[in-house]
Amino acid sequence: MPPAVDAIEELHGIDAAALPQELLQPTRPYVLRGLAAHWPLTLAGASAQAGAAYLKQFASDAPVTVSVAPPQADGRIDYRPDLLGFGFAQQKAPLAAVLDALLHHADDPAPPTIYVGSTTIDTWLPGLRERNDLGFGAVQPLASIWIGNRTRIPAHQDVPDNIACVVAGRRRVTLFPPGQLRNLYIGPLDRTPAGQAVSLVDFAAPDYDRHPDFAEAMRHARVAELGPGDAVLIPSMWWHHMQALDSYNVLVNYWWRQSPRWMDTPMNALLHAIMSVRDLPPAQREIWREAFRHYVFDADAQTSAHIPETMRGALAPLDEARARELRARLLQGLNR
């Protein structure tokens, strides 16, 4: 039997128009109750018909990407059991047509899965944010919308920090600290359902014979059920499983990074290390473990203090120009 799961800590009364700085540099997750309850989008979403009509006012004619799956998928946007493909297909359709399809199947006891994930609001719903937005100050997040029926998105992690606001329907959120990587049985890094590596555990029916250490992951899990207007703050690289519980669900999320835009994503460094370091002989891997510790993970002012400033090159403090030079050098090496 899985262990009891702790609740995500809750905060109330957060000013949505001016988010506190400590929430923009998060190290722990929070449920932010009622954060988006005042949005017209949230108020309209109390009725699926009214919510869909509100979104249609802003929807552009450009088609969105829609993931669809048969009823037996039970809402799971994931691999096939053999991992040789996906249990869903992707189509292109106008957002208005997707909303109509959701309404059409709203009372269907076994509907097909319909899911629009991570669609940029300013591109596909221009004007929506004018009255439905959060105050990030100087931070400029990417705002996206997620629309569907009863869906289950496998546990995954994202590099940016994330505030996800439920504006229609209910969602069950299960979070895990980054350190639970080993216990979540993560699938392929380079062939993924939606761009991020995901847990292969079916949270609705965990197979503890096949994934025995998932029980340990659940001992560290934190869970919450979010209603319309509630939000969850997910710090960078926290694993999160998202389950939409109703026949019409809409979520708006914001991604931002606590680093300059010109910094590369660490995932590229991970893939490059797999290519160039992982399969070295053990003794050589240990040498490179020390090199990474010295130059990356424990780097400080003393790392290059013995080198004249004008000669420190890649060891100097990183800025946009130096990052561009390093990227060009890496590309030259990769294209040899």
UniProtKB/TrEMBL annotation:
InterPro entries found in the cross-reference section: Cupin_8 (IPR041667), JmjC_dom (IPR003347)
Superkingdom in the source lineage: Bacteria
SMART domains in UniProt: JmjC
Protein name as catalogued: Pass1-related protein
Organism listed in the record: Lysobacter enzymogenes
